[in-house]
Design brief:
Number of strands of chain A: 15
Distance between the termini of chain B: 21 Å
Helix content of chain A: 25-40%
CATH topology of chain B: Pyruvate-ferredoxin Oxidoreductase, domain 3
Number of domains of chain A: 2
Structural class of chain A: alpha/beta
Oligomer: heterodimer
Largest sheet of chain A: 8 strands, mixed
Largest interface: A-B, 28 and 24 residues
Shape of chain A: globular
Strand content of chain A: 15-25%
Order of helices and strands of chain A: EHEHEHEHEEHEHEHEHHEEHEEEHEH
CATH superfamily of the largest domain in chain A: Thiamin diphosphate (ThDP)-binding fold, Pyr/PP domains
Number of strands of chain B: 6
Number of helices of chain B: 6
Amino acid sequence: MARVLMKGCEAIAEAAVRAGCRFFAGYPITPQNEIPEYFARRLPEVGGNFVQGESEVASINMVYGAAAAGARAMTSSSSPGIALKSEGISYCAAARIPIVYCNVARGGPGVGAIQPAQQDYFEATKAAGNGGFRMLVYAPSTVQEAVDMTYRAFDDADRDRNPVLILADGVIGTMMEPVELPEMKSEEEVKAIQDSKKDWACIGHKLDYANRAWIQPGQWDTVKMQQWNEDAYEMYKTWKPEVEIYQVEDAEVVMTAYGISARICKSVVDILRAEGKKVGLIRPITVSPFPYDAYDAINYDICKTVLDVEMSIPPQFIADVDRGIHHRAEIETCLCSGGNIMSRDAVIEAVNKLLAK
Amino acid sequence: METNLCVAGFGGQGVMTLGKFLAQATCDSTDKNVTFFPSYGAEQRGGTANCFVVISDEQVGAPLGDVMDDLIVMNGPSLAKFLPTLKEGGTLYINSSIVDEPTDRPDVKVVKAPVTEMALEMGNAKVLNVIMLGVYIGYSEVVSPEVVWGTIEHKLASKAKLLPLNKEAFEKGLEIGRSQK
């Protein structure tokens, strides 16, 4: 298929449309404005609906409603806006409503900075809302990955009847890069997907229909509520983490990073390998579930230190890395934050320092 | 092989468009990888606007490099801001109408083009970026001029009456770029 040059945000939106997304509601915030902007233009062309809500809270609840009625529905925002959506996301998880949403993350905390950051890691992977639910969280490191992940996220969400998060950042969202777009689902396919949800969705049932749809973001009965949590937990356990393990086998220093930082680290591996230096990279593709076992690929007889590289101060991703390494090596960090982009030279310097140890 | 380019100037000088045309032409013409990354700070009118284009045979690692191979500077403040990022022996392209050649970097090659004056002489101040894109392509040959022109033609398809002017602008730029090789 021919490649096209697209901005990350627009490519994410187009991938969603091709996956059958026919409803989007959102509220403006930098650096993700091109997602709603693209949907506003594109959805009417395919018979879908776009709403610019009066707030983030309204938008996520519209998405909750549309998905409860069986539509493939999506929202997006950036860090502070995602925080506002957390109530609705938790309700979607509680009501087992499949939605897809994207966080084009920026500096924080608070309003923070409008430039790229990776400071929403704990929020994305551990507590995207109240109640301890879990989600599949994809961390794209290229625009192509953002496209592929968004496309499949709708299938994942429908399969599990659970929210799925694309955890991007301001670089992925605003940069342009050539991509190959996935196949456009036909109107018949989109209709069939919606029809397949008739068992549970509020699609419109006759009054005497035995199995009337009932969307419940909670239970009055504590026994039922516990059962709900147990069922959800069993579903979460079916997920398989995904990871890229790059040149790790003989590495004396292993970097670990996700998203845009991982992409920069991968080029550092290539640059330093060309100089004969033994370095590698472990890059979680899903950050929830986290690929803890991937850290078993490190040869701890020769690798004494792992370098955690992330655009967050204090570091967050390091907590999962620590659990994966489990005291087998020391962990050093290479960090930036607040809207600054990870410098490749800073990563090279940090790795060289560890190699010299 | 990886080329890091920074394009910087005043908001309104078309630096983003210049970068996007180049990225689009690279995407259209070659199997090379390319990224276009715009700076999007809290920009003010009259402030600097800049973007980064990376063209690479391998996958692009950092869409925003630390060190630039090439630097296109359209105004004075951008020169002060970005010249320190230009690598030793790198190439600096300046809008010599309003940017003075730096005296403190004897190591870099300077390609000069008075694009503001040229654009005004052509009767449309806006084409200065297309002239400068021509200069860059003429000098660097990073993508073939035919493909770059094809991209501009395609992008301006809805404004067909501007095509002759842009064609002239692009060709004048190419000539200047080639003549300074």
